[in-house]
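Notebook p. 47: complex prediction with manganese (II) ion.
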Amino acid sequence: MTRIAVVGDVGGHRDELASALRALGAADGDDGPVLPPDLVVVQVGDLIDRGPDSAGVLRLVDGVLTRQPAQWVQLVGNHEQRYVHRAVFRWPETLDPDSAATLVRWWRTGTMRAAVAFTDASGLGWLACHGGLTAEYRRDVLGRPGTAREAAEAIDALRFDERLWRPGAKLTGSPDRWAGPVWADAASELHPSWLDRYAERGAPPPFAQVYGHSQAARWDADVPGLAIDRHARHQTRTVAGIPLVGVDPRHGRHAAPEWSPLVFADATLA
Ligand SMILES: [Mn+2]
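Predicted complex, structure tokens below:
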């Protein structure tokens, strides 16, 4: 059986990523981490920027993708978007040319994707993408996929389509229920979208989701209906029994004091 570890935004913190992998059982090989055979890592995007060593993060991940390609799923975040699509926002840091070329190669070859699906031990389907999928984007852009797997395939089919990158409140300042899966903001777009759909029509989300990019609340907040794990740095909103889990540890220039990947025992990649 497979353990799936969903790793939140890394933000250029190579040492944090390496120690998280070590805690998951990775060995320190001569060329970088070697994952144990039962482990698949899903990284939700935003590997780069903010922290001290974006280039080192990309070298580490590129090594695992080369040596153990079946055991690492790399998703695209809006920080990678600057290199594989267009720089739609300004950022004070710029990758060196080799690092930028790595991202472009991953995107062109399909090594880096926009979404992935898996099934947990209870049989629940999960969609993973950088920002999360709103109910409106699922309905109007993707054509109502009924399963996490169909949703992931529909999102990935947009990899060279402008609609994949549709921005939301984090870029424009105005909440947009049609914000795309790279940009949707948990507090103002993703959570209200599914909560309203359920409140209006009694329709539960068709699958669970795990995403990075933003968190719905501050770590010290006390929000009804939102479970905040301050140690792991996960935030879970449950809509009609279906979880939406944010895993962005929100590292800044300095790493979060504590954080962990979200681990699913006995899961199956779609
Ligand atoms: Mn992001």
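Notes: The chain has a mean pLDDT of 97. The chain has one domain: 2-269.
Next step: compare against the earlier run before touching the bench.
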